[in-house]
Design goal:
- It is a single chain.
- This protein has 2 domains: 129 residues, MutM-like, N-terminal (N-terminal domain of MutM-like DNA repair proteins); 124 residues, Orthogonal Bundle (Helicase, Ruva Protein, domain 3).
- By secondary structure, the protein is of the alpha+beta class.
- Helices cover 26% and strands 20% of the residues.
- Strands 1-6-7-5 form a 4-stranded antiparallel beta sheet. A 4-stranded antiparallel beta sheet has the order 2-3-4-8, covered by helices on one side.
- It binds zinc ion.
- Zinc ion (ZN) binds next to loops.
- Zinc ion binds next to loops.
Length: 281
């Protein structure tokens, strides 16, 4: 699933092409991906509107339109939002086609059809349940070591689960939680409220640096993710633990172990991320 660096890379690749574009038509090829609007209403409300901005909150893309509406897209597992300057044929996995000034087009391509599309009035996009519950943006000034410490102190579940939950910090998924915990030297089973101030400080820095590094590589492409031009990211070559169960730790050479935590596969180094009596299952 695309996480913050992937969704942000999609935003950055689409932004220069979409801002100032006019929507000239809409074709809905799979209506079940529209979550709060019918194909007829979407077509009526989008056609003739200008795209003013492309934003992001957590893993949600926010396409701001003239006359005060916002098209909200969550790519989920396999969704791709692709800009074609010269148009493109509809494929068996094209779910939504937004016609721009001819011949430009924006396609939602989604093999598994889990992506979600919402249309909301501007100022109400933040009230969407998935967005309203989000914690601070990790690369913004709203995310601070003190705020992270206060939020973690309220939870005794494993730190892995708490970071995946989106409420303490937005945008992290399985890849970057495992990578951040490795960089911080924190065992994923540790109870969130057991972290010392020094550990919270390391975790704060690790979250910021792993996201910034992944953004610098255009995101991580394990299976499906590509940017707004269909180009994969390169951070998969730099992953320290995610997907590396049974391989040697890049730092100490110890064999990395895999374990399911909160139903999610988790990989860590038992030496660099020692477990302690404070861990919970
Ligand atoms: Zn190690």
């Amino acid at each position: 699933m695309p996480e913050l660096p992937e969704v942000e890379t999609v935003r950055r690749t689409l932004l220069p092409h979409l801002v100032g574009q006019m929507i000239t038509g809409v074709e809905v090829l799979r209506s079940t991906q529209l979550k709060n609007v019918s194909p007829e209403v979407l077509k009526e409300k989008l056609t003739g509107k200008e795209i003013r901005d492309v934003g992001r909150r957590g893993k949600y893309l926010l396409i701001y339109l003239s006359q005060g509406e916002v098209l909200v897209v969550h790519l989920r597992m396999t969704g791709r939002l692709l800009f074609y300057a010269e148009g493109h044929e509809v494929t068996p996995h094209t779910r939504l086609l937004i016609e721009l000034i001819p011949p430009a087009e924006l396609h939602l391509h989604d093999v598994r059809s889990f992506a979600m599309v919402f249309l909301l009035p501007k100022a109400e996009e933040c009230s969407l349940p998935g967005i309203a519950a989000l914690g601070p943006e990790p690369l913004s000034a709203d995310f601070t070591p003190a705020g992270l410490a206060a939020a973690l102190a309220r939870h005794r579940s494993p730190i892995k689960n708490i970071l995946l939950g989106q409420r303490v910090v937005a945008g992290l998924g399985n890849i970057y939680v495992d990578e951040a915990l490795f960089r911080a030297g924190i065992n994923p089973l540790r109870s969130a409220n057991s972290l010392t101030a020094a550990e919270v400080g390391r975790l704060f820095q690790a979250i910021r640096t792993v996201l910034a590094d992944a953004l610098g590589s255009g995101g991580t492409s394990i299976r499906d993710y590509v940017n707004g031009h269909g180009v994969p990211g390169a951070f998969q070559q730099k992953l320290a633990v995610y997907g590396r169960k049974g391989h040697p730790c890049r730092r100490c050479g110890t064999t990395l172990v895999g374990e399911r935590i909160g139903g999610r596969s988790t990989v860590y180094c038992p030496l660099c991320q020692p477990n302690s009596a404070k861990s919970v299952k």
